[in-house]
Task: structure prediction
Amino acid sequence: MATASAVIVAGGAGSRFRSETPKQFLALSGKPLLAHTLMRFDACAAIARIVLVLPRVGFAAALETMAQVWAAELANTSVRVNLLSPGATRTQMRSAAFPGEDPQTLKTPDALTNTFLELASPDCTRHGELVELS
Result:
């Protein structure tokens, strides 16, 4: 029985690749890099829950559709797929990207913990949902 949870953080913007397209959507062997990652986790018999963390900027509809399609494909399995949009969060990376932003106006990473734990829990029944933490 699958009992492990996977948190896939794919929130990059692609700036280090000097690309307009976020790196998780860049093609590798004809498929987006993220598709390769998801296929590896899908093939792992130990995985029961997958929490996919992605930016919604510019790709909201595509991401939601992808998560819903993947969730539908896995509906008859024990794997649960949800899309987590954490929103603006106080991190060093964000400070570097938005130097004029007041970090005190942003939630801390600790504010996300309970949601991650809920989605990764074997007891979680949510499936194919967009979970927004704005």
Remarks:
- The first strand starts at residue 4 and ends at 9.
- The mean pLDDT is 83.
- The helical segments are 33-42, 60-73, 92-97, 113-120.
